[in-house]
Write a structure and sequence with these properties.
Layout (H helix, E strand, L loop, with lengths): L2 E6 L6 H13 L2 E8 L9 H11 L6 E7 L2 H8 L3 E6 L2 H17 L3 E6 L9 H9 L16
Parallel strand pairs: 1-2, 1-4, 2-3, 4-5
The protein binds adenosine-5'-diphosphate.
The site of adenosine-5'-diphosphate has 18 residues, from helix 1 and strand 4.
Length: 151
């Protein structure tokens, strides 16, 4: 069975993430969406909210699982026996950043990173922009799946 880990903060899940996961499902038997926990990072949404947003958005997609992990992504992949990491690429800056991480990861473990180019209509979306729009009372609803709402 081919399984891929899609790691990130998902603070919150955006239509950009949604698009990559939907397309990942057509390539892999299972997509494990992995919420990385970093004790030094301040999040807008709690871990429970971030997890629930993803679970609800993919409630009808049995090939999508959501997990939480700490520490190095490749270590977690090895712990649960996953051979692929899935990442989305929006622009050249993403590429440079992701290239360094993917090379490092391959030095650390025999895990391949698979990149999907974002869809043109979601390529400008980033969780950080969504958070800025929310903080400033803007209409963020066009940038996230329908179930992702601020309480
Ligand atoms: P982090 O900031 O912890 O890397 P993110 O939640 O921002 O986590 O991103 C997780 C993954 O989703 C990354 O591979 C990133 O490139 C991808 N991603 C983020 N936004 C988009 C988007 N608009 N379109 C496609 N992929 C995206």
């Amino acid at each position: 069975m081919k399984r891929a880990l899609f790691p990130g903060s998902f603070d919150p899940l955006t239509l950009g993430h949604y698009d990559i996961i939907k397309r990942g499902v057509t390539l892999f038997d299972e997509i494990i969406v992995a919420i990385g926990v970093n004790a030094d990072k301040k999040y807008m949404f709690s871990l429970e909210e971030r997890k629930k947003f993803i679970e609800e958005a993919f409630a009808n997609e049995p090939k999508v699982k959501v997990v939480v992990y700490k520490g190095l992504t490749v270590n977690f992949c090895q712990e649960i026996g996953i051979e692929f990491i899935l990442r989305g690429l929006r622009n050249p800056a993403d590429f440079e950043f992701e290239k360094a991480i993917a090379h490092t990861n391959r030095d650390l473990a025999p895990i391949e990173t698979v990149f999907l180019l974002t869809s043109a209509d979601t390529s400008y979306i980033a969780s950080s922009i969504v958070r800025d729009v929310i903080r400033n009372d803007g209409d963020y609803t066009k940038l996230v799946p329908d179930n992702v709402r601020v309480k």
